[in-house]
Amino acid sequence: MLTMTPIQQLEDLVATEKKLREVYEELVRMDTGEGEPFESLLVKRQVMKISTLANDATPSVGEYSVWLTGGTTTITDFDDGVEGQLITIIAEHSVTITDGTNIFLKRSVTAATLNFDMVASDTLTLICKADLKWHELSRSRN
Q1: What is the mean pLDDT of residues 29-49?
Q2: What is the domain extent for residue 30?
């Protein structure tokens, strides 16, 4: 039976502690910067800020992904979008999103027009393509 001397045991303990420290430091690097790597590995949640669109036919969507409608002006385009950007519009008002030149909505068999006449709490999710045109991904009628 091999036994370790106290010096060997101490060296083994130091090596183990060093390895644990390296693992801990890697977890800290993986963290979001809040200094709590273990908690952040257990639960990662994404919180999106919600902003309000200008009451404009072509409101800017450059800074956020989730937007509340800002009025009842019919929306024909969204300014300041970038390729791959997803936006979700949540209706706070009755507002029309116009299908056509800059916004392409899904076709509905029963709809009289392709426009989306949103009412309070309806949602619309769009993606911006390379040509800076918006394409509907989904909607909800609430």
Answers
A1: 59
A2: 6-42
Q: Quick one: pLDDT at residue 94?
A: 96
Confidence of residue 43 (pLDDT cuts 50, 70, 90): low
Burial class (CB in 10 A: 0-12, 13-18, 19+), 134: buried
- Per-residue confidence at 22, pLDDT binned at 50, 70, 90? confident
pLDDT score at 99: 93
Same domain for 11 and 32? yes
29, 98: one domain = no
> 79, 58 in Cβ contact below 8 A?
yes
User: What's the Rg (C-alpha) of the chain?
Assistant: 26
Looking at residue 61, which CATH number applies to its domain?
A: 2.60.120
Q: Is the dihedral of CA 91, 135, 65, 61 positive or negative?
A: negative
Q: Are residues 60 and 126 in the same domain?
A: yes
